[in-house]
Amino acid sequence: MIYLDNAATTRVSAEVFEAMKPYFCEQYANPSSIYSFAGSAAKAVDEARRRTAALIGAQPNEIYFTSGGSESDNWAVKAAAEALERKGKHIITSRIEHHAVLHTCQYLEKHGYEVTYVSVDENGVVKLDELEAAIRPDTTLISIMAANNEIGTIQPLKEIGALASKNGILFHTDAVQAYGHIPLDVERLHIDLLSASSHKFHGPKGVGFLYIRKGVRMGSFLHGGAQERARRAGTHNTPGIVGLGAAAARAAAQMEETIEKETKLRDYLIKRVLDEVPYSRLNGHPSKRLPNNANFCFRFIEGESLLILLDQKGICASSGSACTSGSLDPSHVLLAIGLPHEIAHGSLRLTLSEETTREDIDVTVEAIKSIVERLRSMSPLYEDFVKAQREHGAQE
Amino acid sequence: MYSEKVMDHFNNPRNVGELEQPSGVGTVGNAKCGDIMRMYLDIDENGVIQEAKFKTFGCGAAVATSSMATELVKGKTVQQALEVTNKAVMEALDGLPPAKVHCSLLAEEAIHAALWDYAEKNNLTIEGLKKPVEDIEEKVQEDE
User: For the whole model, what pTM was predicted?
Assistant: First the structure.
């Protein structure tokens, strides 16, 4: 099997799993308990908090463990908006956010908030002039993702953070795809709130965190306990939190090396596909993109068919086609970068990991070539295109 | 997610291709929604479908329903072919996931469109055949 869907989730690394093990059957105490048996679990949670914070230049007491990226996004956007509603009820976000942010914004719109959805350029970069123009006296929150989950484009966080801080607006970034993959520094980037999830960088599923800058006042999302400085109720998921911490420490230690390795392979993959598959295009920014992300469109074919055939060759990938989104519309991200529907339906996302080899890429490219050719041979769109080409040629 | 029959017809689609001089050809669906089916029929002087071919742009279910539809109409008379409904196509494939039912409607529509073209070319009226709708999604919404 060749696993190229690391933006969906990653393998838990062996050392992360080892670090988690003692907290299931041995050190199973509730970290909030008073007796000494709970001491080791409480210490482990503290250590994980320290490691998680260190990766983004935050203080440990600014990290609030959650169940993952969706919860963090929901909490950040809802609670920040509600906490500041006396100042105003206007939020700015982008059109290419993950649904955890977009649907939360839509929820707030139903409850009397106004949301501006800033557009992006053809590479998926948020338009800064549009963002700046959208700022109003009653704007309380800007929520822009660090890097896009589909097309991998990295956003100009520093510029956005500077705009937000200059205007006294809170800045939340959904860093689910970026944390553990690229350097992020909450001070340098003026980030007030940051959401991340452990399973995107070789940690376990079901755990993540929200960074809340010291001094930012906002309410709880889950009520009913004093955990996490009384801001997030619920018994600590000790093994999960330890796993998150271990994954963060691991990412910190090898980030530079991983970025270099993944970027090289990614660019090799992109070059081969664009060179060898006719009528293909790269989606997202050519260089300002996540080191592990490649996203293509192949004209005249549909993404789900491509995924099924790749699966039969043992290759795991994903697509932004309507059929994989459960609706009739293709990915909102591909539409936002200006692709017409019929091209957006033929997208393929390949996301690498540190485990991906050059051979994996070679096998995948060969598979893509033969599958795309096969699907085109049965595509009426391709038939029409070839006929039109021929007629055009005959006229000349 | 898909039945074995759907996977079989997706992996080994029957009757893929074009006919040089078809008695009737119909294209339905639209690229915007991600499904287009084109069906070619060769119908003899007795009104029997001798050959059926298709080309499809779409998901696994769209390919499988096209393939099954061509299999079901081959050897049938024009009137019998009208009875190949979307339900018949779905049943022959051992069912489709709910989100993919519209693919079977597209297959039924493709048969009708090809028959409509055949009738127009030959100045025939086929009893029970209505002019096919161009936008299948409208039909799906009407049916709902």
Answer: 0.93
